[in-house]
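Let's practice the habit of predicting before peeking. Look at the sequence and jot down your guess about where helices and strands might fall. Then scroll down.
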Amino acid sequence: MQKYRKSASVILSLSKNNSNSNSYSTLRQAQGDISGLLQEPHKFLVSHFSIFNSRKGFTLLELLIVLFLFTLMITLSSVFFVNTLPSSRLNATAREISGTIRHARALAQIHSQRQTVTIDLDAKQYGVDGRGLRSIPSDVNIRVADTFSGDVYAGKYHIVANTTGTVNGGAIVLWNKKRTVTIHPDPIVGAVVIK
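Done guessing? Here is the structure:
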C-alpha cells in the first residue's frame, strides 16, 4: 500500500514540477502501479498482505476454543436470566397493585366519589371497581395483613380510597420462592409504599 501512496505522491509532485528529465519515466511507472491497483485490487491484497499467503482459514483448535467460550457465555447468561425472571415478575406485580391503589385515590379526589380496589384472593385478580380486573401471575402468592381481621388468605378484600385522599386497608404481602414484597397503604396521607 505504501508503494501506491508513493506513486500517488510522485504523480502529484511531478505534475506540479515538469523540469526534471527523469520525471516522465517516473510518472509512467507511478501511473502503471496505480492502474494495476485499480484494475486488479484482489491481486494487490493477496500479494501485499502476508496473512493471506500464510494461512487460508482457522485451525480446528481455534474454532473449538471460540465455540467453547461462546457456549460458556450463553449458559451463564441463561442461568442469570432464569433466576431473575421470577423476582422481576414479583416486582412488576407489586408496582401494578400499588399503581392501582394510587389510581383509585386519584379518581376519588377528582370525582369526589369514594373508590374501592377489590383484591380477589381466590381468583388472583385485582382492580378498581367498575374499571376492569388484572390478573396476578400464578407463581406469585398473595395475602393481606389487616390490622383488624388479621391475615386474609381467601375471599375478596376491599381497599377504600376516600375523597379526602386517605386510603383504608391493610398491607398487601406478595411472595414467591425467593422473595417477599409488602405494599403498605398509608391510612392518613394516602401514600402507597412498597417494601
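How did you do? The mean pLDDT is 80.
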